[in-house]
Amino acid sequence: xxxxxxxxxxxxxxxxxxxxxxxxEPLDVFTREEGEAxxxxxxxxxxxxxxxxxxxxxxxxxxxxxxxxAREGYDVCVRWEFPGPKKGKPLRDWFSKMxxxxxxxxx
Length: 107
Hints:
It is a single chain. The chain is an alpha+beta fold and 107 residues long. 22% of the residues lie in helices and 26% in strands. It contains three helices and five strands. Strands 4-3-2-1-5 form a five-stranded antiparallel sheet. A hairpin with an 8-residue loop joins β2 (57-65) and β3 (74-81).
């Protein structure tokens, strides 16, 4: 499994508007079991993100420990699926538990 670099992790976390994450409640993270259960699930964007239109489909591809050591738990990574040929690396975004439930729809 690919372990993202710190800069890559911060870039993708901030892309979807996740700032000040260190102040979030512990309930905002997945347990390891919850995160692992999400891997392989198809999702759809409930809202538009920069470079990701509303309704875009994606796949949960991995979990990783939450950014702040004080927040024990996991976030999940969604790899977006765009129609047609796409050049470059696949676009990915990281989601906390709260963001996942508010901004994504499981298919």
